[in-house]
Amino acid sequence: MQGTAKNGIYYEIEGEGPWMTLSHSLACDIHMWDPQMELLTKHFKVLRFDTRGHGKSVVPQGPYTMEQLADDVYELLTELGISQTHWMGLSMGGMIGQTLALKHPEVCASLVLADTTSRRPENALKMWGDRIVTARAEGMQGVLESTMTRWFTEPFRTANSPAFQAIAQGVLDTPVEGFAGCCEAIARIDTFDRLPELKCPVLIMVGSDDHGTPPEMARKIHAQIPQSVLHIIDQASHISNVEQTAVFNQHLVSFYQLS
């Protein structure tokens, strides 16, 4: 099943079981989660959606806020009649999940927060501002190489697998306005002090070589959430679900006690 919600958010639904909602990284789309779908659809009714400004979703003029991104999802869930869902988000998707869970705690049955952060460093506005300037001046081609270098380890980039190529094409296909709008939201993420309010089970995963949202930040998030579980995935950078699919999926199997 696929469709577009009244607010312009594109979604697809597959599988049977309790609801599981997947939220992708900046400059990706629903297909970032393809490596997890065979596993998840055996156990969950999986909702994937394209964040505003990405994929087949609406591209409003930016800047966006993290609250807007979370509200988009809440409106989608409400329209689909979903009162509670498990949540898995990577990078920006993890930030949206934190924001949604803090704003609507009854909605999230559990959270998987992968390669994400809850508080940006002091240089965030300049760092993300520079990327916006480059994208507006040169298109997404202008940010492709630096993005892929941050997202994947050198051996994985060198192997140039179909999965790597698909993510690269996804970056190029991202509308510049959507990229810029979401960069503005990411640059202002600040949920860290409120993380102890989360009461649902939380799985935290991060690549050992992730420099954008490093293991140290994952450890701090873990310390803020008493009921959380933390796994650091070796030989992976930022998009750990793609680079180390087997390990990432095994942690999901263990966390959700899947057979």
From TrEMBL:
Q: One short Pfam family name for this protein? A: Abhydrolase_1
Highest taxon of source? Bacteria
* SUPFAM superfamilies named in the record: alpha/beta-Hydrolases (SSF53474)
GO MF, any single term: 3-oxoadipate enol-lactonase activity
Q: Which residues form the AB hydrolase-1 domain?
A: 22-243
**One BP annotation, GO:** beta-ketoadipate pathway
PANTHER family registered for this protein in UniProt: AB HYDROLASE-1 DOMAIN-CONTAINING PROTEIN (PTHR43433:SF5), HYDROLASE, ALPHA/BETA FOLD FAMILY PROTEIN (PTHR43433)
| Name of the molecule in the record | 3-oxoadipate enol-lactonase
Organism the protein comes from: Polynucleobacter kasalickyi
